[in-house]
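Dear colleague,

Thank you for sharing your sequence with our group. We've completed the structure prediction you requested, and as agreed, I am returning the results in plain text so they can be pasted directly into your records. Please verify that the sequence below matches your submission; if there's any discrepancy, let me know and we will rerun it promptly.
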Amino acid sequence: MPKGSAELTRARKEEIIAACRELYETRSFKDITLKEIGQLTSFTRTSIYNYFETKEEIFLALFQREYELFVEDLDALCNREEKLSIDELASELSHALDRRPLMLKLLSMNLYDMEDNSRMERLVEFKIAYGESKEALDRCLQKYCPDLNEAGRQTFLYAFLPFVYGLYPYTVVTEKQKQAMKEAEISYVYMSTYEMAETFIRTLLQGLLS
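Please find the predicted structure tokens below.
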């Protein structure tokens, strides 16, 4: 066990978040309880309240971790030496999204409930991670699309960011949903996360730079 209160706090928070993530792989948000999360940790369930007051706070922290990993991917992309074409940049950004299915799944949830049932300090921590992802995207645009001015980059960001909220439900479709679409006689082309994102990003960049 780590020594020192700061290290212990950090380790226990990570353990709680990991337990939440494990449950979320097979259960829905509404079906997961604090009791179940506590049962997967090495300490008592009541100790969770020393770190998170609600289930929503734990999910928000999990969401924050996903944004931080997304930023790492974007920074690695921005730090590459070679130049990238529009097509190559669209492909790399799409791969970065494709590597974060959990982030996309969390984005498709009701974020309002998570934020509303979390303390301000937890919400600020999450917003910082979100803001860093936005800044990392902007750095990639500045490097690989130097002809795109500030207004153009802002247009891209505020088209891209709402777009990713809908990626998960459009690309991860259950058999029940497919059957419902079939019975409703709705024609639909099923695409992967990478395929849908790459088409959108490439088309958006081409339009802004034309």
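Summary note from our side: The chain has eleven helices and no strands.

Kind regards,
the structure core
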